[in-house]
Amino acid sequence: MTPKEKSLAQELKEKMSGESEDNEENEERPIHNKKPSEKLPEDISDKEIQELSEKITEKDIEEEKKSIEPKAETLIPLEEYIKCAVHLGTKVITPHMRKFVYKRRADGLAVINTALIDEKLKDAIKFLNKYEPKQIYIACKREAGWEATRKFEEITGIRAFTKKYPPGITTNLELDDFFESELTIICDPWIDKNALVDTAKLKKPVLALCDTNNFLTHVTQLIPCNNKSKKSIGCILYILAREYCKAKKIPFEATLQDFAGELE
Q: In sequence order, what are the residues at sequence separation of 6 or more whose Cβ sits closer than 8 angstroms to the Cβ of residue 205?
């Protein structure tokens, strides 16, 4: 083993075996004793969320716009956030996500404040722009996000894992496809928990799309949103890709539809 490999091995060992310390730079801190792998029962299914996300009407758009204080400027028009159902939560609201919810619908679904989604997206963009493409990877195990995640990889050059993230790929030096990263993006802290846990072992930051039923343990930067539907995941990744490419001077000619599909 070369001195460089020894140094890297030692660094990994120290990171994963050391005592866990609070990160003062983390915006969100755990406020519960549940493990990130625990899933709350009796929630709405992914399929139901996907179906409801496809049924956003003009009436829904107008009603949501009335509930949101107009802002001077948003990353995309509020109508497009709503058409993509980015604001639809689940029936479960964790303590971590309660502050992002402003009401429940008649069917019991939580509704995320769209203005806060835009605000947290802007924070996430600033955070993401600190890193180069080779320092980042994105994991999305949920099928609804595969197409948008691959498009994100194609445009930004950021490595993507869809379907399955190989556990240990960033922590086990013995693996042939081992690589180092400085930032992990995940589309759901529950579904993408293997990537979350590996990143936590290394004490590296995590940027996560978080729904109302997610816990934020080990999440450094969050984007509150519907992370169950194709349109919503596509919308969030489109905005992140567009702004990242702008900051890194990477050509960007994609449209929201390229990530989210047709909105009508």
A: 127, 182, 183, 184, 199, 220, 221
Q: Which two tokens stand for residue 4?
A: 């460089």
- CA angle (221 as vertex; 188, 68 as ends), nearest 5: 85
In 54-205, alpha helices (H):
58-66, 78-83, 114-128, 146-156, 193-201
Helices 146-156 & 230-248, crossing angle to 10 degrees? 10
Kindly report, residue by residue over 5-28, the tens digit of the pLDDT.
444 555 555 555 553 443 333 333
**Phi, psi of 114, rounded to the nearest 5 degrees:** -65, -35
- Tell me which amino acid residue 127 is: F
One DSSP character per residue, 129-169 reads TTS-GGGEEEEE-SGGGHHHHHHHHHHH--EEEES---TTT
Which tokens is 179 given?
Answer: 């690589």
Domains with residue ranges and CATH for the chain: 42-260 (3.40.50.10490)
In the three-class reduction of DSSP (H, G, I as helix; E, B as strand; rest coil), residue 73 is classed as: coil
In angstroms, the CA 191 to CA 252 distance is: 29
pLDDT band for 59, please (50, 70, 90 cuts): confident
Distances in whole angstroms, Cα of residue 263 to Cα of each of 4, 80, 215, 231: 50, 8, 29, 8
Average pLDDT (213-223) is 97
Q: What is the distance between the alpha carbons of residues 210 and 98, in angstroms, rounded to a whole number?
A: 12
pTM summary value:
0.83
Question: Hey, what are 36's tokens?
Answer: 């990130």
Q: Cα separation of 135 and 244, whole Å?
A: 13
- What pLDDT is stored for residue 13 in this prediction? 56
pLDDT at 32 over 70: no
The Cα-based distances of 237 to 145, 212, 221 in angstroms read: 9, 18, 15
The answer to whether the beta carbons of residues 263 and 231 sit under 8 Å apart is yes
Q: Which residue type occupies 95?
A: P
